[in-house]
């Protein structure tokens, strides 16, 4: 495809500490200016919000640290999913995604059913295992059962704590994001009570494993933007490239960090806001080793309205499309081509 990605520009992807955003008290501390520690905490909060704003206006990607997901929880999740993928195909096929009305479960390489858009003439050399949210109180056709191995709960007990911890970090990001675009601090949080979150675990083949005997050309994951709200990624090795400033830039894994990016829903939702969020093109290239990644797609409650009240809108409000969808869930159904699920809502 289009040449090598640049590693020397990775510093353009900012890093944000979530410590002040994970702490719900830090905003109130602002009024208590007498304490030094409270003002340094407030500074940390505004620093985080300013870097999120900068990232959203420029690259559309940022690393997060102090995100509350422990190394042990992340390592367990990677170990468990590597073990799952290392099984024979017949074993993995017992959890085939085609058995699930929500397409959750295992997708083999040859199925080609992954979250990314297909690139004409190319196939993605990766397999995936997908889970999503189960319990919910409101009406959402995008919540439902996951498929797990029946014999033992090793996979489930390693993946669920990771998914939960990352959703918590995603809420902290959402809080910062609201402040970054001049919305009330809780604007997104109030719409993430029963989020339509999904976790996609991926194994990309090493180049030497990629089939060469067919007409097909292969990629890890073709260039695409994510269609949802926020994506939080952990990767065990390099492979992700981000298109920024007219070039592909490497976004390698960094110990202790997660990588966040904004999807098309965030861009669409912010059309009326004072700051427009950027959904950036990215791709994955296969390398000399198999690569694993854990991707959490954090989307709002199915029935969440994407309307932004006029008092929080930007000056030059030219509302193009943001009123087109009844709710965030309907936006997703339409983008994922799952409109038929709507009959159930
Ligand atoms: O595996 C990765 O690093 C990125 C995956 C991705 O972009 C996606 O699933 O949308
Ligand atoms: Fe993506």
Automatic annotation (TrEMBL):
Keyword Metal-binding attributed: yes
Cross-referenced InterPro entries: DIOX_N, IPNS-like_FE2OG_OXY, IPNS-like_sf, Iron_ascorbate_oxido_reductase, Oxoglu/Fe-dep_dioxygenase_dom
Family named by the database record: Belongs to the iron/ascorbate-dependent oxidoreductase family.
Residue ranges of domain Fe2OG dioxygenase in the record: 195-300
Key words, A-Z: Iron, Metal-binding, Oxidoreductase
Metal-binding is among the record's keywords: yes
Domain of life the protein comes from: Eukaryota
Name this polypeptide is given: Fe2OG dioxygenase domain-containing protein
GO molecular-function terms, A-Z: metal ion binding; oxidoreductase activity
UniProt organism field: Pycnococcus provasolii
One protein family per Pfam: DIOX_N
């Amino acid at each position: 495809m289009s040449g090598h990605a640049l590693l020397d520009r990775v510093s353009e992807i900012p890093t944000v500490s979530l410590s002040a955003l994970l702490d719900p008290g830090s905003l109130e501390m602002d009024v208590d200016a007498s304490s030094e520690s409270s003002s340094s905490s407030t500074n940390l909060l505004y620093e985080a919000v300013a870097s999120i704003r900068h990232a959203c206006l420029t690259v559309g990607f940022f690393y997060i640290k102090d995100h509350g997901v422990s190394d042990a929880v992340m390592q367990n999740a990677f170990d468990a999913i590597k073990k799952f993928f290392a099984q024979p195909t017949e074993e993995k096929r017992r959890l085939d995604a085609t058995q699930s009305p929500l397409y959750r479960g295992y997708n083999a390489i040859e199925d080609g059913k992954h979250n990314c858009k297909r690139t004409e003439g190319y196939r993605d050399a990766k397999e995936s295992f997908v889970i999503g949210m189960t319990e919910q109180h409101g009406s959402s056709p995008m919540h439902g059962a996951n498929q797990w191995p029946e014999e033992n709960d090793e996979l489930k007990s390693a993946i669920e704590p990771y998914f939960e911890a990352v959703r918590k970090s995603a809420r902290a990001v959402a809080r910062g994001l609201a402040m970054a675009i001049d919305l009330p601090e809780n604007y997104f949080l109030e719409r993430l009570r029963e989020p339509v979150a999904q976790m996609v675990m991926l194994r990309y083949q090493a180049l030497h494993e990629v089939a060469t005997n067919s007409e097909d050309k292969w990629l890890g994951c073709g260039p695409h933007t994510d269609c949802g709200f926020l994506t939080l990624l952990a990767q065990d090795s390099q492979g992700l490239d981000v298109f920024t400033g007219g070039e592909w830039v490497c976004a390698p894994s960094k110990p202790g960090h997660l990588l966040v990016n904004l999807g098309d829903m965030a861009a669409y939702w912010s059309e009326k806001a004072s700051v427009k969020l950027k959904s950036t093109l990215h791709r994955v290239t296969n390398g000399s080793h198999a690569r694993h990644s854990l991707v959490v797609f954090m989307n709002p409650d199915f029935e969440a309205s994407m309307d932004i009240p006029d008092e929080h809108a930007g000056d030059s409000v030219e509302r193009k499309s943001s009123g087109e969808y009844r709710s965030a869930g309907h936006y997703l159904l339409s983008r994922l081509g799952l409109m038929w699920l709507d009959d159930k809502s």
